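The methods section describes the discrete structure representation at length, but only in general terms. An entry of this sort, consisting of the sequence and the corresponding backbone structure tokens, reads as follows.
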Amino acid sequence: MLIRLLFLVIFMLFVDLINHFGLRAMLRRVKESYFYKYNIIAYWSVAFVIAIVFIISLLVTGYPQLDYEKYRFYFYLFGFWLLFYFPRIVFSATVIFQAILYLLKRIKSKKRSYSVSRHEKRNFIVQKIGLGLAFISFLLVLYGILIGKSDYKITQIEIEFADLPAAFDGFRIAQFSDAHLGSFSDTKIAEKGFQLLQNQKPDMIVFTGDMVNNIADEIEPYFVALSKLDAPYGKFSILGNHDMSDYVKWKNFDLKREYLLKQIRYQERCGFQVLENEYILIRKGSAEIALIGVNNWGLPPFKPYGDLQKAMQGVENSAVKILLSHDPSHWKEQVLGKTNIDLTLSGHTHGAQMGIILPFFKWSPVQYIYDYWHGLYTINNQHLYVNPGFGYIAFPGRIGMRPEITIFTLKKKNE
């Protein structure tokens, strides 16, 4: 922890030094005024306070281990840091860009007199724009923390299947994913989302992994709220990478296994059937579809606990197969073109909890990590839907990437 803290302080100092020189250059004409003096003092005072708060908080709190409330504290500490340093990072980027522009201009100019006259020609327009962008960044982070994380939305998706039994035409499945219940400081925030889900009156509810950050205890405050979720054809869940308890320094494997089993019991207590590399047949009269669930399967550094081959044993004759698999990487690596699974429901990416989603355009930094990261993808009649998540982790907010509950309506394709 001390090494990470040292690197963080060095990074903060680096950003602040860049901004210091950028502000000095912008304010050079009022260098002798109180305005200049107090702006520089105020800038460094905020930097000093943030650094002291961080150092003391981290040293006093220590490593969280099984205390999920400490993890939550770290998330809000990170949110506090991001609120003030994301704008500073934005401004420092414009300071560097501005310096490069003037350096190129100076190199291009062959006149020796340029070194004398260059100050009069500098208006620092890029840095001025950077100040505006920094202010907007501050507001966006503040919005994400105060409002964005609880701005739930319902997304309606209609998917056609050629072999869908007629009895399932119009069947509605509600998906939510990545609840990360230990992250919520107020249970009412998550309960608001659960109520919105229940209001949709789906035929079936599925949860696609990461109910918790680390341990089963995070579910305890939500026993009642999760139990109230009801659907006539059942509630089903799978285990995500965080549910597997890989991010705790366990004393031994038996203790880890104990907490994993405890989490499964807790989810079952709330009415969910946890599918661990297995399937279940959903029946309406004589018609049926297969619901397959696997434990988390991911590319390194995530561990491949899922066993799709085992989970599919016995579903060969099912007309429509729906897979619950937490990590969308699984679809590309083991499902697409390698199985006859019709629809895969995933989560995991959170859409980075930050991005732009428009009808004609979507972007998030997570797209540079995952090929499939948000929304519906269809290749050769095989479908994948990546839910951007219900909760949050690390950054206690969402910017442009609203928490989502997805309602799928299964439709029989007209020949």
About this structure: The two ends are 61 Å apart (CA to CA). The chain has a mean pLDDT of 92. Residues 2-146 form one domain.
